[in-house]
Amino acid sequence: MSWIFVVIGLAIIGFTLLDLVMTTLTMEGAGPASNVVSHLTWKCFRLADRWLDSQWLRMLTGSVVLVVLVVFWLACTWLGWVLVFCWDGIQLINTATQQEASLVDRIYYVGYTITTVGYGDFRVLDTFGRLVSIVAGFTGLFLLTLAITYSIQVLTAVVEKRRLALLLDAMDLSRHETPAPPDERAQRIEIAADQLASLHADMAGVSQKYLAYPVIHAFNDRSPRVCLPVHISRVYTFLATAADSQDLSMATSERLAATRALIQVLIINAMASHWSKVYVASSGWGVSTTGEADTRDL
């Protein structure tokens, strides 16, 4: 094959590795290709769910999106190295028959090389081909290691997201919406402010997890109790009503202000991504025209 295919193959490999590093190591969201692939996969599940209305389909969405990402990285890397090894300058032979490897044989050789299996069915005769085989094996090891690590981190982030949702659910902020005398209402707000302050570290952590691993938005929750966007809406509503109270101490007001700042960042990272269609106002809050936190399509 012409050297042009080698250039194309190396370009595919380089772009795939760049996308992999941007997705797994920068902690600033997905790479350009991963962003498109994950979004399209998620959209396909959304369309299928509108027809089937299946709870199990929604529960599988996040896992399938994660698997599709890993398969995409592996497939692109495999394709790139196949184009490189199809170059006529690399002499690849069958160790049993000593015959030149066919296209299918080269695809097979690249597959077990990048997965670091190394059956030894085929071997490269020239020095350049051996060096390329070493680089291909290292690339595959690098890819698989990052993919596995990324998958574990994503699943851990999903667990932390649901943990924060459960902690907010236990607070039951909706009870503060019931009418009460000013003194009693102020006391309720102070208690809630203390409870929310104890969750500041969790809010900040989950907020950064949404930024680092936006794919966690594809993981749907079976119960409203562990659905974080629902509880973010309740916290937002509570903060909006608590701001109107005139009988709060300075310490309580400062705690509420700190909670508001953290919730604002959490809303931006969790709701303003391409995964949802939540409208984000110029202030950074996900607010609908009615003044309530908008959680549609979440």
Care to describe what's here?
This protein has 298 residues and is mainly alpha-helical. The chain is 66% helix and 2% strand. The protein has a two-stranded antiparallel ribbon. α5 packs across α8 and α8 runs antiparallel to α9. The longest helix is centred in the middle third of the chain and has 45 residues. The C terminus is likely disordered.
Any descriptors?
298 residues; mainly alpha; 9 helices; elongated; disordered C terminus
How much of the sequence is in beta strands? under 5%
* Average pLDDT over all residues: 83
What is the H-and-E element order? HHHEHEHHHHH
Q: How far from one another are the termini? A: 49 Å
- Class by SSE composition: mainly alpha
Instruction: State the assembly state of the protein chains.
Output: single chain
Q: Classify the helix fraction into a percent range.
A: 55-70%
What is the count of β-strands? 2
Q: What radius of gyration results from the CA coordinates?
A: 26 Å
Biggest sheet details: 2 strands, antiparallel
> Which segments are poorly predicted (pLDDT under 50) over 5 or more consecutive residues?
276-298
* Major beta sheet, strand line-up: 1-2
Gross morphology is: elongated
Specify the number of helices.
9
Concise overview:
By secondary structure, the protein is mostly helical.
Walk me through the topology:
Layout: H1 3-24, H2 32-52, H3 55-85, E1 92-94, H4 103-114, E2 122-124, H5 127-171, H6 182-197, H7 200-212, H8 228-242, H9 250-271
Helix pairs in contact: 1-3, 1-5, 2-3, 3-4, 3-5, 5-7, 5-8, 6-9, 7-9, 8-9
